[in-house]
Design brief:
It contains 13 helices and 10 strands. By secondary structure, the protein is of the alpha/beta class. It has a domain of about 200 residues: 3-Layer(aba) Sandwich (Rossmann fold). Strands 1-2-4-3-5-6-9-10 form an 8-stranded mixed sheet, with helices on both faces. A two-stranded antiparallel ribbon has the order 7-8.
C-alpha cells in the first residue's frame, strides 16, 4: 500500500512548445512516496480532471515507484496558474518537472494527459525512459463541420456542464457523480474522497477547480491542431496503450476506437475489458491494471 499523498509544488520554466520562454509559474502536484530506492514515475491527468485521479493507481503500485501527479494549468492546485494553456504548454511544464526530478523517467498519461506525455517524449527524448498511454494519445475524430467548439461540447458533454455549475453543497456534487453512467457500479469511499477533493468554495456553494478556458484551449488542440493530432503517427518507439472497452458515458463506442487501434499495430495494445474511460484509472480493477503495466515497464 502506498503512503499518503504529499502536497508539493514545482516552479516551471524553460521553453514552451512554440519556442516562447517559460513564465516561472508555480504548479501544484501530489507525490505518493514509494519504497526506498524506487524509481519516480510522473502521471498526467485528463482534460477536466486533476492529480487526485491517480490516487487509486498510486495505491496499487504499492511502493514500486514514487508517483508524482501534476495538476496542469487551470486545474486543481494549479487552478490559478496563468495562461497560456494548450498541449504544447503542458508538455513544456511536464518536461521542466521531469528534469527537476532527474530524468529520464517513465511518464503515464490518461486521456488528454496521454497527448501531453507523447509530446514530452517527442520533444525531450533524453528526459523520458518510456511512456504509457491510458485511453488516449491516438487521433480523435475531427469536427466534421469544422465547428470545433460544438464538437468539443459533444465530446465532453456532462464534463462541460460540471465545470460551469455551482453546487450548493458537497452532497449535490457527490449525487451528480453517483448518477453518472460511467459509475453505474457505484462509487467507493476512496473514489468519493478523491472526487470531493476536486471542489473549491465559491459564492453560493462549490465548484470544480477547472477553468473552462483551459479546457477549451486544450480541447481545440486535441481536435484541430495538426501537431497534436499526428503525435502517434510520428511515434516510432513501440508504445504501451491501455484501451478501455467503453467511452466517457460508460457505454460504446470506446474513446479510442477500433479503427484507430488497427492503424497502429506496431504498438503494444492492452484491452481493458469491462472498463470505461473513467473507471480505467478510478476503479480498483482499472487502477490495478494500470499499476501492473507501469511495474512491468519499470522492470523491463
Amino acid at each position: 500500500m502506498a503512503q499518503q499523498a504529499e502536497f508539493i509544488e514545482f516552479t516551471v520554466a524553460g521553453q514552451s512548445g512554440d519556442g516562447q520562454s517559460g513564465d516561472g509559474a508555480t504548479l501544484g502536484a501530489l507525490r505518493w512516496p514509494g519504497l526506498d530506492g524506487a524509481p519516480t514515475v510522473v502521471a498526467v491527468h485528463g482534460i477536466t480532471s486533476n492529480a487526485w485521479a491517480w490516487d487509486p493507481v498510486a495505491h496499487h503500485l504499492a511502493g514500486a515507484a514514487h508517483l508524482v501527479a501534476v495538476d496542469l494549468r487551470g486545474r486543481g492546485r494549479s487552478y490559478d496558474a496563468p495562461a497560456p494553456y494548450g498541449i504544447a504548454q503542458h508538455a513544456a511544464d511536464i518536461a521542466s518537472i521531469v528534469e527537476q526530478l532527474g530524468g529520464p523517467l517513465v511518464l503515464v498519461g490518461h486521456s488528454m494527459g496521454a497527448y501531453v506525455v507523447e509530446m514530452v517524449a517527442e520533444q525531450r527524448p533524453q528526459s523520458v525512459r518510456d511512456i504509457v498511454l491510458v485511453d488516449g494519445g491516438a487521433p480523435l475524430a475531427a469536427a466534421a463541420d469544422g465547428d470545433v467548439d460544438a464538437a468539443l461540447d459533444r465530446m465532453l458533454g456532462p464534463g462541460i456542464e460540471r465545470i460551469r455549475t455551482v453546487w450548493p453543497n458537497r452532497v449535490s456534487y457527490h449525487s451528480m457523480w453517483a448518477g453518472h453512467p460511467a459509475f453505474s457500479d457505484g462509487i467507493s469511499p476512496d473514489l468519493e474522497r478523491n472526487l470531493l477533493a476536486d471542489l473549491i468554495e465559491v459564492d453560493g456553494g462549490f465548484r470544480t477547480a477547472v477553468r473552462e478556458a483551459a479546457v477549451r484551449t486544450d480541447g481545440h488542440d486535441l481536435l484541430a491542431d495538426a501537431q497534436v493530432r499526428t503525435l502517434l503517427d510520428r511515434r516510432q518507439q513501440p508504445t504501451t496503450i491501455i484501451r478501455a472497452e467503453s467511452g466517457m458515458l460508460g457505454g460504446p463506442a470506446p474513446f479510442v476506437t477500433d479503427d484507430v487501434r488497427s492503424r497502429y499495430p506496431q504498438h503494444r495494445w492492452i484491452e481493458a475489458a469491462g472498463l470505461n474511460h473513467y473507471t480505467i484509472i478510478n476503479s480498483a480493477t482499472g487502477a490495478a491494471l494500470v499499476a501492473r503495466t507501469i511495474r512491468d515497464i519499470l522492470l523491463d
